[in-house]
Every structure is written in C-alpha cells, then in structure tokens.
Amino acid sequence: MKILYFWDAYCGWCYGFNKLFTEFYKNHTDTEIEIVSGGLYILENSNKISKYTFKNKEIVEMYKVEFGEAYNKVVEEGELVLNSVQPAIALNTVKELIPNSKLLDFAYDMQKKFFIEGKSLSEVGTYLELCEKYDLDYSDLALKLTIAFKDTNPIQQDFLKTLNLGIESYPTAVIEKNGEYFDLVGYATEAEDIEIHYNLIAKKL
C-alpha cells in the first residue's frame, strides 16, 4: 500500500492542502508516498503571473494558510513566469537524496518559499536555502540542479503519468494497492478529516 499525491508546486490549492497533509503524514511516515508533479504551468500555459487569476481568499478561508507579503508583492508586480518544469525536476532530484518519509515536508517547504517568501521555483538558489534543514550537501545539490535545469523538455515523466492516470485537478491524493485507487482527499479541511478517510480505506484493504 502506498500514497500517490498529485500536485503542482505553484498550485495554491495544493499549498493549502499541504498544510493538512503534512500534519496527517507525520503519523504515517511508514507508508510509502510518491509525489507526482502534474504540470499545471507548462507549454502555452507557462506565462507571467499577471496572466492568471487566483482564489487565494477562498484558500485562506478553507485551509487557514498564510500568503506572505513578499508573495503578494510578486503577484502585484506581475513579472514572475510560472513554469512547473523546474520544480518538478527539483523534487525528483531531491527524491534521490532524502528519506521518503521527509519528501512531503520538503514539498511543502518548496511551496512556502514561493507562497510566503515570493521566491521563484525556477531558481536553483531557492532550493539551496533548504539544504541545512534536510541535511543536503550544498555543493552537490547546486551542481545536480544546475545540470538538471538545463533540460528544456517541458514534458516530464511525472506529467505523462498524471495524464495517463486521468488526473485533471490538484490536489489529488489516493491510496494505491494492487492496482486499485481510493480517494484520500474527499472534502478535507482538517488533518483529522484525512485521518478518517485513511482509516476507512485501510479497513477495506
């Protein structure tokens, strides 16, 4: 049994849900988790942030998360280009360097770099700021990401997997066992809601 989590690092709804999901997962770190990037902002949909409309007020009301002043300034300036390719590459690079049990925390910290601090997730330096917290070698990660970010292919394997499984909205979290998939998100607005879904599914398996 494992958890499959389909998200996008630049997705505000995923940012809100991650607050709950990381809290829930603290009690289930023995369960394997696979985080799959969906590719929300790629190809013709990768544009300056000014081209998009966000429902941050609704996200705050539902998930009680914070959008930082630095992020709000980035939105106001409107110049940052949203591109899902680099954060997808970065997460897949880090997957090989930290324990699986820490991966969801890292993903949430990636998002906080953007939604709180207003940092671009297409910049290598953004991820290097997380090295100390996750006991990552600064020089090694810098080299790996610098090389990996030279990949200009907008279609990553994660994006193809998301498409092939028919995932069309984020966040989507499911429990997978023997080729069967069970929804873990439901209408969760608290970590306890996810826990209830998890326990109900576990009883069926």
Provide an overview of this structure.
The chain is α+β, with helices and mostly antiparallel strands and 205 residues long. Helix content is 45%, strand content 11%. Strands 2-1-3-4 form a 4-stranded mixed beta sheet, with helices on both faces. Helix 1 packs parallel to helix 2, helix 1 crosses helix 9 and helix 4 crosses helix 7. The longest helix is centred in the N-terminal third of the chain and has 14 residues, at 12-25. The chain is globular, with a radius of gyration of 17 Å.
Characteristic key phrases:
single chain; 205 residues; alpha+beta; four-stranded mixed sheet; 9 helices; 4 strands; 45% helix
Q: What's the helix count?
A: 9
Identify the strand order in the major beta sheet. 2-1-3-4
- Unreliable stretches covering 5 or more consecutive residues: none
Number of strands: 4
Largest sheet: 4 strands, mixed
Helix content: 40-55%
How far apart are the first and last residues' alpha carbons, in Å?
Answer: 9 Å
Question: In terms of quaternary structure, what is this?
Answer: single chain
- Rounded to an integer in angstroms, the radius of gyration calculated over CA atoms is 17 Å
Order of helices and strands: EHEHHHHHHHEEH
**SS strand fraction:** 5-15%
Structural class: alpha+beta
Mean pLDDT: 95
The backbone outline, from C-alpha atoms, is globular
Task: Please summarize what this structure is.
This protein is 45% helix and 11% strand. The chain is built from nine helices and four strands, in the order E-H-E-H-H-H-H-H-H-H-E-E-H. The longest helix has 14 residues.
